[in-house]
Specification:
Blueprint lengths: L20 H11 L12 E5 L6 E4 L4 H10 L6 E5 L5 H12 L3 E5 L2 E5 L10 H4 L9 H8 L1 E5 L12 H9 L2 E6 L2 E6 L10 E3 L5 H12 L4 E5 L5 H12 L3 E3 L5 E5 L7 E4 L4 H14 L3 E6 L5 H10 L2 E12 L3 E9 L8 E2 L11 H8 L5 E5 L9 H7 L3 E5 L2 E5 L8 E3 L3 H13 L3 E5 L1 H7 L3 H7 L3 E5 L4
Parallel strand pairs: 2-14, 3-13, 9-10, 17-18, 21-22
Antiparallel strand pairs: 1-22, 1-23, 3-5, 4-5, 6-8, 7-8, 10-12, 11-12, 14-16, 15-16, 18-20, 19-20
The structure holds ligand EPZ.
Length: 475
């Protein structure tokens, strides 16, 4: 997760008009390297609205799980195979950071073979770390395995300042000496103790990242660690399941109290990353906002409970269509979901830590509620600056007022196509959904945000019958 966008606005693209998706994927590995020229040379997405979608869409592996599992591979001085890893800019960046640390990575489609035998804990490259917030997740595994780590501060991003104080305080509670100097976090063990020490840690806020950092650090610590007010997101459970398969001793993941008993060593595994609940939620909203009945799989319905509850409130039905058959980490069976659209009516949404309504679905629901009858109030409580998509939806005719961290929505009959600019990852998805529902043509710029978190989105929508294409201005 980089959620820092400033660097991406500098990406040049020298490609012919209208490239096919696989070319886009190859260009993903270029994306993380070279600076850009002008906005004009940036690719744009043209969407013809009033789409009627049908069929089934394949859901990719979870970005926010794959990223932390890749960082977690450092815990094991051997081979790790991760399956169902999505092909995304953020994943490429995490590969770059791990490679700079000495990790050997081979990719075969959505499978990553990772060998973290020989690593150098001081080599995390600033220029890449600053583009991927999730890269900070390497600090826990490096420190607990090698007793020292040096990782650039990830910095803020479009949606918020994104401090790491809870990560640092957790590592300090386990006996690490942590100091921040010239933008670098230096963490090492002092005194005779060559291992982190188990500790009781109460998190002031159930931060996903801080819970993941402390959980990974505690797997190889001496003694027992208790994390209270821990985050409960499905990605935390996937991380704990993965670490347990490596030989860690973890109880309570998915609840607000996690207990980790440190072990001496973790071992090689072959692990299947869970499906992406946010990508799945985005496609459910695509069905609702275009009035289309579509199916999606593989998904784990429980992970989408707050999203499905709100779609039901708005007037749609979401049905679980039996087991899809794939097993994911921790023996979780996946299913197929189908959305049956209905008359859209307004409702209120407040984003909260899991199992509350996910902040990563807020923008998509703002687009949906902008054409739902009546009034809706959307309160973004997790990030301080995550309503920037509202101004772009207003360009398309939405009637939304922002008051502090609330968006007050008065539903309109329909949106009309317009040129809009994506400001962050989930905002970009919301604008694509609004474009699919709107009258006429919408052009979306800032696609580097989209490529960070959605695998083959355009192809998936085209296969469902949508009319959209990526245009690369000839230079
Ligand atoms: C993870 O970010 C996800 N990213 C985010 O997804 C997601 O929005 C977020 O969790 C909440 O669900 C990844 O997993 C890579 P947090 P993370 O720590 O771990 C404050 C997407 O769209 N905080 O739970 O960074 C923080 O400022 C992305 O895919 C502190 O104050 O989220 C924020 O307000 C966006 N101090 C709140 O907690 C800290 O030390 C939640 O942050 C850490 C966090």
């Amino acid at each position: 997760m980089t959620e820092s966008v400033s660097h991406l606005d500098l990406i040049p693209i020298k490609l012919l008009v209208n490239i096919r998706e696989d070319k886009a994927i190859n260009s993903i590995s270029n994306l993380t390297q070279t600076p850009a020229t002008t906005e004009e040379s940036q690719p744009i997405l043209e969407i013809w609205g009033r789409a009627s979608l049908q069929g089934e869409v394949q859901i990719s592996g979870a970005k926010n799980s794959a990223l932390v599992l890749m960082a977690g591979s450092i815990l094991c001085p051997g081979d790790i195979r991760l399956r169902n890893v999505p092909n995304l800019v953020d994943i490429k960046r995490m590969e770059q950071i791990l490679t700079a640390l000495g990790v050997k990575i081979q990719q075969h489609g959505n499978i990553l073979d990772i060998d973290a035998r020989d690593i150098n804990p001081t080599k995390a490259p600033y220029d890449v770390v600053s583009q991927l917030r999730a890269s900070f997740f390497v600090i826990g595994p490096l420190l607990t395995r090698l007793g020292t780590a040096r990782v650039p501060l990830p910095g803020g991003c479009a949606i918020g300042t994104r401090p790491i104080d809870l990560h640092v305080r957790g590592l300090q509670a386990m006996g690490a000496n942590v100091r921040i100097e010239s933008g670098i976090v230096h963490a090492h063990l002092t005194g005779k103790k060559r291992r982190l020490q188990g500790a009781n840690i109460y998190l002031d806020y159930p931060s996903v990242g801080a819970t993941e950092t402390i959980l990974m650090a505690a797997t190889l610590a001496e003694g027992e660690t208790k994390i209270e007010n821990a985050a409960q997101e499905p990605e935390i459970v996937d991380l704990a399941n993965c670490c347990c398969q490596m030989g860690a001793k973890i109880k309570g993941a998915g609840t607000n109290t996690i207990i980790i008993s440190g072990v001496d060593r973790l071992n090689s595994i072959d692990y299947n990353v869970i499906p992406d609940r946010i990508e799945a939620g985005t496609f459910l909203v695509a069905g609702a906002i275009t009035g289309s009945e579509i199916s999606l799989s593989p998904v784990i319905p429980e992970h989408l409970a707050p999203v499905i509850a709100k779609l039901n409130e708005i007037g749609c039905q979401v049905v679980v269509e039996g087991n899809e058959g794939t097993m994911f980490g921790g023996n979780i069976q996946s299913s197929r979901l189908r959305i049956i659209p209905g008359e859209l009516k307004g409702t209120d949404i407040e984003t909260l830590p899991y199992p509350g309504f996910p902040t990563d679905m807020q923008a998509q629901f703002t687009a949906l509620l902008s054409i739902s009858e009546g009034n809706s109030v959307i309160s973004e409580t997790v990030f301080e600056n995550r309503l920037r998509h509202v101004a772009e939806l207003q360009r398309m005719g939405a009637n939304i007022r922002v008051k502090g961290h609330h968006a007050i929505v008065r539903g309109v009959r329909s949106l009309s196509g317009a040129p809009v600019m994506a400001t962050d990852l989930r905002a970009s998805a919301a604008l694509v959904l609004a474009g699919l529902a709107a009258e006429g043509k919408t052009t979306v710029r800032g696609l580097h945000h989209l490529d960070r978190g959605y695998e083959n989105l355009e192809t998936k929508f085209r296969d469902l019958g949508a009319n959209l294409q990526r245009i690369i201005p000839a230079s």
